[in-house]
Amino acid sequence: MSEKGGQERRGFFRINDDVALTYRLVSGDVASKTLEDLGVNEGESATLTNELEKMNEVSRIHFRHVEKESPEVARYFSYIEEKINLLAHHIMMANDELFVESTQPVNISGSGVSFTADTEFESGDCLEVKFTLNPSLVKINTFSEVVSCKPEGDKFRVAVIFKRLRDADRDMLIRHVVKKQMNNIRGNNE
Alpha carbon of 179 to those of 12, 104, 175, 186: distances in Å? Predict the structure, then answer.
C-alpha cells in the first residue's frame, strides 16, 4: 500500500460503533465502474432516510435562530421533526432485513471500516460493502479494498479502505462519526 493511502486513513477520526453491514467479494471490472453505472440505488426508504438526514443538517442551522427568538416555536418544530424521523425509521426498518439481521460491532471512519467476517480475504481484494448507520438509518454503499485480514477466533478481522464512495455519503459518514465521538466524550465527562 502506498504512503498516501496510509496518510489518508489517519486523516479521519475512528470510532467503535454498531452498524448493519453486509459485504461481498467483487471482481476488479465491477469495482472499476461507478456506483451509478451499477444501478446502485438502495430504494425509496434508503433515499428517504439519507435525504432526511441531509435536510436535518441544514435545518439545525435555522433551528438555532428560531430557538433564540422563540423557544416555544422551536420546541414545536423539534416535536414535528421527531415525528417525521419516527415515521422514516419505521418505514426503513420495515423494508430493511439488513438492519434487523446483521447489526455488528465495527471500527469505522470516513476512509474505511474494520469488521468481523466469516470468510478470509486477501489484501487487495475488492469488496462491495453496504452498511446502515444507527440511529439515523443512513445507508452507505461503497467499493472497498481489503488492507488486512487477520484470524480472530474462528472468524477474521477484515479492514478495508473505501475506494468508491459518493461524496455525499462520505460527508454523512463523517458527520455520524463526529457526532458519535462528541456523544462519547460528553458521556465520559458526566
Answer: 13, 19, 6, 11
Measured CA to CA in angstroms, residue 17 lies from 20, 35, 54, 82, 161 at distances of 10, 25, 21, 23, 17
Find the Cα–Cα–Cα–Cα dihedral 179, 185, 188, 190, rounded to 10°: -80
pLDDT tens digit sequence for 6-49: 444 456 788 999 998 989 999 866 656 654 554 444 444 446 66
Assigned domain for 110 exists: yes
**CA nearest to 129, candidates 9, 152, 117:** 117
Q: What is the mean pLDDT of residues 106-126?
A: 94
The CATH number of whichever domain residue 109 belongs to comes to 2.40.10.220
Domain extent for 133? 13-189
144: number of Cβ within 10 Å: 24
Q: To 10 degrees, what angle do helices 44-69 and 71-95 make?
A: 170
> Domain for residue 104, yes or no?
yes
